Amino acid sequence: MKFNTELLHSGFESDKATGSTLTPIYQVSAFAHESPEVLEKIFNNKAPGFAYSRISNPTVDSFEKRIAALERGIGAVACSSGMAAVTMSLLNILGAGDEIIAGAGLFGGTIDLFGDLQSFGITAHFVSCVCTDEIEPLITEKTKAIFAELIGNPALDIVDIERVSELAHRHGIPLIIDSTTATPYLIHPIEHGADIVVHSSSKYINGSGDAISGIIVDSGNFKWDTERYTGFKEYKKFGKFAYLAKLRNGMWRNVGCCLAPMNAFLNSIGLETMGLRMERLCGNALELAEFLDGIEGIEVNYPALPKSPYYSLAQSLFGGRGGAILTIRAGSKDRAFRLMNNLRLPIIATNIGDVRTLVIHPASTIYTHSSEEQKINAGVYNDTIRISMGIEDIDDLKEDFRQAIDKLKEE
Ligand SMILES: *Cc1c(COP(=O)(O)O)cnc(C)c1O
Predict the structure, then answer these.
(1) Taking a C-beta distance cutoff of 8 angstroms, is the pair 90, 145 a contact?
(2) Residue 44 confidence (pLDDT)
(3) pLDDT beyond 90 at 102
(4) What DSSP character marks residue 285?
(5) Which of 9-23, 50-64, 67-81, 140-154 shows the lowest mean pLDDT across its residues?
(6) 298 alpha carbon to ligand 1 midpoint, in Å?
(7) Is the distance from the beta carbon of residue 206 to the nearest atom of ligand 1 less than 6 Å?
């Protein structure tokens, strides 16, 4: 199946009981069963079925199966948010004394999370470039995971995933990829060596900015050495499903960061049009990037522009597509603010992956608590504006940016 067909049909079964063309919203907490024997089996993973929506729910289950199929995984676990997915993907394998190696240009929330984990004895080491030269010297016997965003947000740096996964595997360490900004439209990270893939499905999977959610997909490929990952001893019997079984029966269920059925439904609907939206978003982003690149006083960062240092990776990994985010530098914070105030169509909001174009000044918002070094690693300067591309007609956006920039001269 090709991408848009897959979005509709892959991993999807219509509701067997009613024939409903979408999986309905099973907005309940618990599921009744005919006998204690049946419920005992469900509780002990001996029979399929649902018991309690914190543990599993048909609407959520349908969303998980579709994403797992789309991302070439053996299964998926949905979470209440992207941050919950990032957190659970790691806490499923880490304990006190363990270390993570991660890109310094990560999403601000993830950087803050790594700070929080410090008080539980988990240490993150950051690399300014997620590349083998920088990662390898940091690997110790305590290193339990390498974590990276495939396309950094908002640095827009692209990880050479094949080289990094090869290095990780040589050292017996899994590579966890946050593929939120790349989306399955650009790449299936598992096919390039990622062991675990996480998404903030609040963004491009949802697509309309109407529900927060996250999801963890397991490739089933990583061999969990139970000497190194001692928590996996009792899950060895699940074979390649060990990671998912441990997650579902342990940390994820006990923390209680389950996805609400309503939000699973909204994200499943969004998923179906992701191909159409991403095609439009990537086309719009490239056209706006090329347009703005020609304007004096504006510097554009977009991976599909030939001048980008990530141009060749965008060609080889994403077929030349550059994703739906671009950043521009306006020359000063004052000019950046004035430019944003002059825009008529883009909305000033801290989100990405909406159908509307969104702009934000990351230095004064998402990165307001970050050090100067953290900001530079994240590609966040005082004059940076991040543009999350929308599906508007590109001529309207070009005209709007043109007038907003022209006004800078008049003021
Ligand atoms: C938004 C985002 C997150 C966090 O997701 P939420 O759904 O907001 O919790 C994590 N990683 C990346 C790359 C993101 O853009």
Answers:
(1) yes
(2) 87
(3) yes
(4) H
(5) 9-23
(6) 28
(7) no
Do 297 and 228 form a contact (C-beta atoms < 8 A)? no
Residue 82, ligand 1, Cβ within 6 A: yes
Reported as type and span, the H/E element at residue 79 is strand 75-79
Q: What residue owns the CA closest to ligand 1's atom 5?
A: 82
List of residues 6+ apart from 368 with CB closer than 8 A: none
For residue 153, how far is its CA from the centre of ligand 1 (angstroms)?
10
Specify burial of residue 371 (Cβ count, 10 A radius: 0-12, 13-18, 19+): exposed
Write the CATH number for 169. 3.40.640.10
H helix count then E strand count, the chain: 16, 12
Average pLDDT of the segment spanning 15-26: 90
Task: Tell me, yes or no, whether 192 and 324 share the same domain.
Answer: no
Q: How does DSSP assign 92-155, residue by residue?
A: TT--TT-EEEEETT--HHHHHHHHHHGGGT-EEEEESS-SHHHHGGG--TTEEEEEEESB-TTT
204 in contact with ligand 1, CB cutoff 6 A: no
In this structure, the residue with its CA closest to atom 1 of ligand 1 is: 200
Whichever domain contains 346, its CATH number is 3.90.1150.10
Residue 147: CB within 6 Å of ligand 1?
no
Lowest mean pLDDT among 36-45, 296-305, 317-326: 36-45
Q: What is the pLDDT of residues 268-279, one digit of tens each?
A: 999 999 999 999
pLDDT of residue 411: 65
- Owning domain of residue 289: 275-410
DSSP letter (8 states) at residue 158: B
